[in-house]
Amino acid sequence: MSQSRTRAAMVPVTRRVRAYFAAVDRATESPAIFDPAKMGLFELEAPPTPWIDLGWVDNFDRISGTTTECMRTGPVNGASVQFRASLDARVEFDFREWGKLQMALAGGVQHMNVLAADPNADPEPLGGSPLLGVAVLPGSTATEIQVGAGVNAFAIGDMVAVDVDYAQQTGYVGAGIAGAFVRSAADVLRDPNYIRRVTFNVGRVAGATSSSLLMEQPLLGGAPAQDALVQKVIAFADREGGSFFQEWSAVFVLEEQSGGRVCFYYPRLSPSTPAEAAASGYQRERRIEIAEPIAAVALHAAFVALPHKDHNDGEITVCYRSYFPSSAAALY
Q1: Same domain for 128 and 149?
Q2: pLDDT single digits (tens) 249-265
């Protein structure tokens, strides 16, 4: 008489999904790599470099539109060869937290820093002529900005942008992370502050010494260039329209309540509004009721997955799914 055996649990159980993003090198179109062998079981509160924790997300949906076709041959036109005709994958979710990166990813276009304006400046939708920047001095790092006597121009709690002047560069601009693409110098020549308007090299002043600003978090673009300036930021803003598209790598982690961890890695995601959603009215923000009349406002984000060549075998892919079974789980 055979003895029955009960398999160990194999079902991942989760409550929430956590989102991590890292910049794609736009000049080379090289994504940030998520290596499950090295990073798969990282602490959710302390993601490995270069991944940035953007918090918990709701209504996480992975949509696959990849189609399969058949080659038919023979007297009865039977299927003889099967192949994938096209790769199509999309991701949609709601950011529950607002910040510069969340707004940039949900909006998909240039994301702007509203620089503190000169009181006499003409009003502009994204802020008029700003106050003069303070020069960055040698010895600055991503967490401490040396400004000498210029430290008096800032207060604890101020947001600042740290980047170089615009000097007729074309192509991608912004320290460390592409904030915009300049097609012609004539388009932005009148604004030497343009790069600081679009840079991701921003931070909040958490403290100060007699000659330096101490950042609450490291600047995303790293230590500022020698010829960079610091300017106070009042707010973040974006626009509906424009020709620039954000492009980021992403990892989504299903928080493990019991059982194993599941990770979805997208090497290249670019914002996209599905045609069917646009036809019915696409919601950029969603109201999530707490208790009337109070509601949370979530940023709705939708992306199309761009192709990536896997170095293992040259196959073209758009997404990787990895599963880390718990120590007691059956494997099949």
Answers
A1: yes
A2: 999 999 877 778 999 99
